Amino acid sequence: MEYKKKLIALNIKKADNFAVILFFASFILFGAINLFDKRTPVLTTGSVWFDSLLALGIFIVGMIAHEGTHALSGILCGRLAPKQVKFGFDLRGMNLYTHFEAPMPMKGFLFTLMTPCVMTALLPIALLTAFGGIIPLGASCLLLAGCAGDIVTFVSALKQDKKALVSDHPTALAYYLVYPENALSEGFSATTEEEERVLLVKAQNKPYENDKAKRRSIMSKCFGILLFIALYVLVMYLISLFMRFF
Description:
By secondary structure, this protein is an alpha+beta fold. It has one domain (3-243). It has seven helices and six strands. The chain has helices at 12-36, 48-76, 106-131, 134-145, 148-158, 193-202, 211-243, and strands at 3-9, 85-90, 95-100, 104-105, 165-168, 174-180. The strands form two sheets. It has a four-stranded antiparallel sheet with strand order 1-6-5-4. It has a two-stranded antiparallel sheet with strand order 2-3. Strand 2 (85-90) and strand 3 form a beta hairpin. Helix 1 runs antiparallel to helix 4 (134-145), helix 2 runs parallel beside helix 4 (134-145) and helix 3 (106-131) packs antiparallel against helix 4. 29% of the residues are buried.
């Protein structure tokens, strides 16, 4: 069957800014609850370093589980075959991703977007807030921040035609509204290749100009991640020392 597609591209910078807001808002809110609730321990294991290793494990497992939940939701709710689900690693964003090679119903797409957010971020945040452990809590808040693109896409897709099929873009923060050629909705206009290129450029999803720029961007991203981890462990250590006096 022939299909017509309309691209909906989302601004990656706005999603990145939203991710920062999600992390700090959730960490400050739930971290404050954890710190000042005397019934819950500040440290899960009793050691800053073991808690830091636990947080790292939670983050790595959470990222993998996030993509696995996307895939499982796509198969169960998106009515896709396992062979239509592909996994990959984006060097530019330094993150894992799941891509669906066939369109799915809008309801299935919406469910597929939000299931990982609930299962791999909100649920661990709730458990760690209830039982204590501010350092692992931070890792869960990072996982929530990693859901920013899914949440932004979910909000955008809610505004679209619920009868449309949806296909995610393989590399960009974008998706397609898909209609069979013989069942186009009123007012629908397919996106041409040139229009798609312009939309993706406006959304800041530009390709690298050369390999040197690509390597420089990846190294900068890795350095930023390592710096963040070091500062995070240091701050958590100082907080734990501070709380011992109260």
